[in-house]
Design goal:
It comes from Trifolium medium. Helix content is about 40%, strand content about 25%. It has 3 helices and 3 strands; from the N terminus they run H-E-H-H-E-E. A hairpin with a 2-residue loop joins strand 2 (about 50-60) and strand 3 (about 60-69). The longest helix is centred in the middle third of the chain and has 12 residues, at about 20-30. The two termini are about 15 Å apart.
Length: about 70
């Protein structure tokens, strides 16, 4: 619940790099640094249609963005 509420810190309809959320949640809530717990939360929010996970490709790198709906 706290992780979802943190999305209110960002402007509406803004793309948020998933790496930024993982780092923020690791610091605030002591989640694992490898991001597995955070990715589980992101996937759960996505499956509940509370947010969208977007994949962008830059210079052969896949970058995941998170967008609250």
């Amino acid at each position: 619940k706290e992780c979802f509420m943190d999305l209110a810190l960002f402007p509406e309809d803004q793309r948020i790099p998933v790496a930024a959320l993982i780092d923020m949640w690791a610091e605030l809530y002591g989640l694992d640094d490898d991001g597995i717990e955070a990715m589980n939360i992101i996937n759960k929010l996505d499956s509940m249609n509370l947010a969208d996970v977007l994949v962008a490709r830059y210079n052969l790198l896949l970058i995941f963005f998170f967008k609250a709906t």
